[in-house]
Amino acid sequence: MSTIAREGVKATEPLRPEPATVVDVIEETPNIKSFRVVFDDPELMQSFTFLPGQVGQLGIVGVGESTFAISSPPSEKEYLQFSVMKTGEVTSALHELTPGDKVSLRAPLGCAFPTDEWKGKKVLVVGGGIGMAPLRCLFMHLMDHQEDYQRLQLIYGARTPRDICFTNDCKLWGEVEELDFITTIDTEHPEWTGRTGLVPHVLEEEAPDPANTIAVTCGPPIMIKYVLQSLEKLGFRDEQIFTTLERRMKCGIGFCGRCNIGPKYVCVDGPVFTLKELRELPDEH
Ligand SMILES: Cc1cc2nc3c(=O)[nH]c(=O)nc-3n(C[C@H](O)[C@H](O)[C@H](O)COP(=O)(O)OP(=O)(O)OC[C@H]3O[C@@H](n4cnc5c(N)ncnc54)[C@H](O)[C@@H]3O)c2cc1C
Ligand code: FES
Description:
The structure is a single chain. The protein is an alpha/beta fold. The protein is built from eight helices and 15 strands. It folds into two domains: about 1-110, Translation factors (Elongation Factor Tu (Ef-tu), domain 3, Beta Barrel), CATH 2.40.30; about 115-245, 3-Layer(aba) Sandwich (Rossmann fold). The protein starts with a helix and ends in a 6-residue tail after the last helix. α4 (about 130-145) links the parallel β7 and β8. The protein has helices at about 1-5, 40-45, 90-95, 130-145, 165-175, 200-205, 220-235, 275-280; strands at about 20-30, 30-40, 55-60, 65-70, 80-85, 100-110, 120-130, 150-160, 180-185, 195, 215-220, 240-245, 260, 265, 270-275. Bound molecules: flavin-adenine dinucleotide (FAD) and FE2/S2 (inorganic) cluster. The site of FE2/S2 (inorganic) cluster has 12 residues, from loops.
């Protein structure tokens, strides 16, 4: 799928991090922050393009770089957004950044969701936790081209109300009549009057019709496992289901061999795969 993403894409030199500046920081949840960044080179910023599902290597000089999905949509030309969960060295250093701080960025890397091939279909997006980062980008892109798709549905789950990311977007999506948007939290909570239940249960309750439908899911591995089972139960075939793999990356361009699973390199052949493609890989992902 990597060829789809590469066509016409204006990118940074794949191995040369470009200087960029943080222009805004949004506290999404107690351990997730979104960083809006702008390339220091105005020409690069103006010509930069990417597609939903692609990632960047965002870093801090002297600390290191890590892989993050671009969580803003391609139509957002003012900045690129990365939503980062604090897990270790690089992500903790990123969480210390404030507007005006410098970062490095190599992007876009990897392949994209083949949204052009989905035109005329219904698209069901199922996300949880930090898995909503690539899905926010995808969903906003689909909404930008809503007339091309038969129906857009998003089911987004978080553990508790405090763990819901992108709360402003969720509010807006909830107000758009043509969208079928559900937020659910795992169990009842005093601060929550909305839907409760684990994502796979809510998915089965909603029972979307698999006919002419593409399903996309990203989230914690345990959620993905049960969402895939639910989709199968509902009648979705492997080639109708897309997800992303979060295999650790280094070079991001197919050189170092850090991210391969059998013959596939997650950094260039992925991170987007169909379930059919994943089932053909050796059992180590
Ligand atoms: C294609 C892709 C897209 C990603 N998108 C996002 C995103 O949008 N937002 C986000 O917050 N994170 C994302 N990640 C994960 C992110 O890259 C890692 O969390 C990050 O590299 C951790 O860096 P660190 O230096 O803070 O952690 P480290 O100090 O290197 O590690 C901390 C702990 O996390 C584990 N860990 C680190 N990276 C991974 C990984 N990729 N898979 C499983 N365990 C890991 C380590 O084994 C260790 O236990 C993505 C990863 C990939 C490959
Ligand atoms: S990260 Fe180096 S080959 Fe994929």
